[in-house]
Amino acid sequence: MKKQFAVIGMGRFGSSVAKTLYNLGFEVLAIDSDEHRIQEVSNMVTHVVQADSTDEEALRTLGLRNFDVVIVAIGQDIQSSILTTIIVKEIGVPKVVVKAQNELHGKVLKKVGADKVIYPERDMGQRVAHHLISSNIIDYIELSEDYSIAEIEASRQMVGLNLRQLDIRAKYGCNVMAIKTGDKMNISPYADDVIQEHDVLVVVGRNKDLQNFEMTFSEHER
Hints:
Blueprint: E1 4-8, H1 12-23, E2 27-32, H2 35-41, E3 47-50, H3 56-61, E4 69-72, H4 78-91, E5 95-99, H5 103-111, E6 116-118, H6 120-133, E7 137-142, E8 147-153, H7 163-166, H8 168-172, E9 175-181, E10 184-187, E11 200-206, H9 207-221
Parallel strand pairs: 1-2, 1-4, 2-3, 4-5, 5-6
Antiparallel strand pairs: 7-8, 8-11, 9-10, 9-11
């Protein structure tokens, strides 16, 4: 059975998440108090409902506890975001993912029961910054305050060498988790695996070690 998602808040972020999940083949219920926003996404999701997410009875009537994941994507109204999170958890939704405006908002959301807190603006800012630092950076995902995963396109200096010769772990303190070659993903590559042109290395490590690794190879490219 396909997973069912409900997305509360049809601003730019919420509508983007809802449309993407629907396009991936999942059932998506879009909820917003604004009739105009609901109409805008009505043809891009499975179901739409105009409702006040701070009205517990209204959310219960929608049967939200039967959904696998509820995403609370309310924009600027922090109070509504927190109240909605509390209600959704009390209804019994197994997983609640909430968009936070800032770190303090995120801490409160965690305390009231959010299973996962996301910071779209902050995370996008970090990704943009890493793209600016190095043209080789394709994606950058923060795992914690200290650790991240980076997708790094192989530089000219890497091509033709294997992982043993590059010795990334010893030199930079980072681990290569996988190598993407075109559409193929090589999970847990061997030390003898040779880097080819246009390969993408999926690397995990401490943020400072990843930055050192990124900077070293981007400087070599200049």
